[in-house]
Amino acid sequence: MSITAVRGLRCGHFTDPRRPTGCTVVLALEGAVAGVDVRGCAPGTRETDLLSPLNSVETVHAVLLAGGSAFGLDAAGGVMRWLDERGIGMQVGPVRVPIVPAAILFDLWVGDARIRPDAAAGYAACDAATQDPPAQGNVGAGAGATVGKLFGIEHAMKGGIGSAALTVSGITVAALVAVNAVGDVVDPSTGHIVAGARTADGLGRRDTVQAMLRGEGTWQLQAAAATTLGIVATDAVLTKPQANKLAQMAHDGLARCIRPVHTPSDGDTIFALATGAAGRTVDLTLLATLAAEATAAAVLNAVRAARSLGGPGLPHLPCASDFAALT
């Protein structure tokens, strides 16, 4: 199951054919109570202040994840236009204003950095949105995602976007994660590195944390050069403070799978959506536990679905399946 298993949500990707970048939108056409939690030190976001429990707007109509660094925030304008054309938004005086929080990741070192998601890309992602399970791997916001970058892009591997969902007692919690981390991605059930920094010869996995503990090498990764983005969603009824708590606890799923995580070069951000389609409340501890589990599963799905990149103007970025035989 995926993010679209949550009743009331649709998901769509736009993947740019000119270079590996794109955007991914989750639509809540009937509105969803929303929250957010930002843990990375280099976030690029839009409308996150609005999601604070101290502020008045309760519901949003879409959440956008995009590549292109700060330039990619332009794609949210296309999502707003798509919603506006359909009369979807919060009534403010004589107009309906679509509420579209967004966050971006840095993928500008993969191909021609002048090509970034724009308003047309956001609009196209909305056009593509359905209730079908979304594609995973090298698509949408995950098209140019990479992992294991602490020792340079030349030693990194391909990241991607993934989704997962869990249902307990008739309530569904799901996650969608675009994995573009400084750190390695680790399967918490085995401790095995699925994708991450490679050794100097490029043929093995380096184990970033152990290399750091050995004092191996030096690094000067630029701020905002990474970032993992996520959306957790449920069909349970939540208040706005509860949605923010759900987003906060979903970060535990990132911490289980990404090492190191929430670094000065990451802008790690997770949004939460509650559609209320189930018509009932559920203990928040259960929902948050499911959110962390779904987030971890989505991270693993993202890198396992990813495919290698290379060719003219692109760095060589092998994927997890290229190293499967080394497991």
Main attributes?
3-stranded antiparallel sheet, single chain, 5 helices, L-amino peptidase D-ALA esterase/amidase, alpha+beta, 327 residues
Number of helices: 5
Q: How many strand elements?
A: 16
Rounded Rg: 18 Å
Shape descriptor: globular
Task: Assign the CATH class.
Answer: Alpha Beta
CATH superfamily: L-amino peptidase D-ALA esterase/amidase
The proportion of residues forming helix, as a percent range, comes to: 10-25%
For this structure, the CATH topology is: L-amino peptidase D-ALA esterase/amidase
Largest beta-sheet characterization: 9 strands, mixed
Our measurement of the CA-to-CA distance between the termini, rounded to an integer number of angstroms, reads 26 Å
State the gist of this model:
Helices cover 20% and strands 26% of the residues. The protein has helices at 75-85, 119-128, 208-213, 240-257, 284-305; strands spanning 10-15, 22-38, 45-46, 59-66, 90-92, 95-97, 102-104, 146-147, 157-158, 160-168, 171-179, 184-187, 192-195, 229-234, 258-259, 269-274.
Could you explain how this protein is built, in words?
- The chain is of the alpha+beta class and 327 residues long.
- It contains five helices and 16 strands.
- Strands 1, 2, 3, 4, 7, 10, 11, 14 and 16 form a nine-stranded mixed β-sheet that branches. A three-stranded antiparallel β-sheet has the order 13-12-15. A two-stranded antiparallel ribbon has the order 5-6.
- Helix 1 crosses helix 2 and helix 4 (240-257) crosses helix 5.
